Amino acid sequence: MDIIMILKAIILGMVEGLTEFAPVSSTGHMIIVDDMWLKSQEFLGKYAANTFKVVIQLGSILAVVVVFKERFIDLLGLRGRHRDGQPRLKLMQVIVGLIPAGVLGVLFEDYIDEHLFSTATVLIGLVLGALLMIAADVFAKKAPKAQTVDQITYKQAFIVGLVQCLSLWPGFSRSGSTISGGVLAGMSHRAAADFTFIMAVPIMLGASVLSLLKNWQYFTMDALPFFIAGFISAFVFALVSIRFFLRLINQIRLVPFAVYRIVLALVIYIVYF
């Protein structure tokens, strides 16, 4: 595999890492960049190219684990309180938030992979997701009940889980839908973002492992350097973008990201169609 292919892998990893946890749809950006420019299917084949996208998502997942390592240690230790006796986010609350999209994802995975991964469907998701994000900011409570992730209730976790189902449509954005759902359910933007990132690890890891088990035959020696380069690139850029986004979200909220999505959809529609 030549250096041009490796550079393409790094670029796709960069797109994934920079957009996975911002509410702009990493899947949508990858589909657009790949379909319009890189065209990984031409040298990997359709299913190997889709497997590559799963591999670089694992790089982003690893970045979340690094940023929230102390939080995951607490969750796995099943501690329900801080040392000072104050409540903290529980593992069961994360599980409650995962159930709705997890069930639908398993039931409709093949249909989504076969019919919804296209530039046209991504454009629809970008616009509809942007409208949800604008609605979340417009109707956000001035004094959220959950200022931090440790104050989230089971009801709020379940509402976020329900709204997360929208992200099964490529381009809608998992972080965009879950942060919007959290804000509408009475969380601060930072609490919703933290909860979104924590939930991302098990649901993305589960989906990735299932996909890789089904497509292990595409890990050929020819494709492996491409996969490794994309994985490392996604990890590095996700690490940077997560830290930046968490410092930013309470200040600018969701509307600027929504405007970007609408402008992007318009530009892509004009250029592509």
From TrEMBL:
The gene is uppP. It is a multi-pass membrane protein. Bacitracin is thought to be involved in the inhibition of peptidoglycan synthesis by sequestering undecaprenyl diphosphate, thereby reducing the pool of lipid carrier available. HAMAP family: Undec_diphosphatase. GO terms for biological process: cell wall organization; peptidoglycan biosynthetic process; regulation of cell shape; response to antibiotic. GO terms for cellular component: plasma membrane. The lineage of its organism: Bacteria, Bacillati, Bacillota, Bacilli, Bacillales. It is found in: Cell membrane. InterPro entries: UppP. Catalyzes the dephosphorylation of undecaprenyl diphosphate (UPP). Confers resistance to bacitracin. This is Undecaprenyl-diphosphatase. The keyword Transmembrane helix applies. Its EC number is 3.6.1.27. It comes from Geobacillus sp. (strain Y4.1MC1).
